[in-house]
Amino acid sequence: MNSSGLLLSLASLLLVVLALTPFIEFAGDLSSRNIVDIAWKPLETGTQGVKVGLTLTYKGTIPLTDVNLRIETFCGGKTCQSQEASTKVLTRGESLDIQFFVPFNASSVRISFESKIAGLYTLKTVTETGVPGYGFPG
User: CATH no. for residue 111?
Assistant: First the structure.
């Protein structure tokens, strides 16, 4: 292999390492600690349901970009409420706040979080949970 071929191989290897570094660091953050704190509290209770505030605080070392948090409330299998919050960049210690309404007749709540790790790798997680007391008269 001549010197130009060796330089090209080394440059290619360096680019691969640089592209994978944010992903590897993010994976290390995930394995070593909880990188997201989620705090929620009821803000108001009305005759139709409860208004809830949710704060997501990021504790990872690699910035997240194109962050989107969506909360959907389902009533009898259909979306009855939906809220979104987004930001271009979320870095260590920064928070994303969202307020949403949960009607008393809600059957479940779905939380979807999507972002990019350092603008390169898409991260998406979705969780859905039942609402306590669904189907019982208040």
Answer: 2.60.40.2150
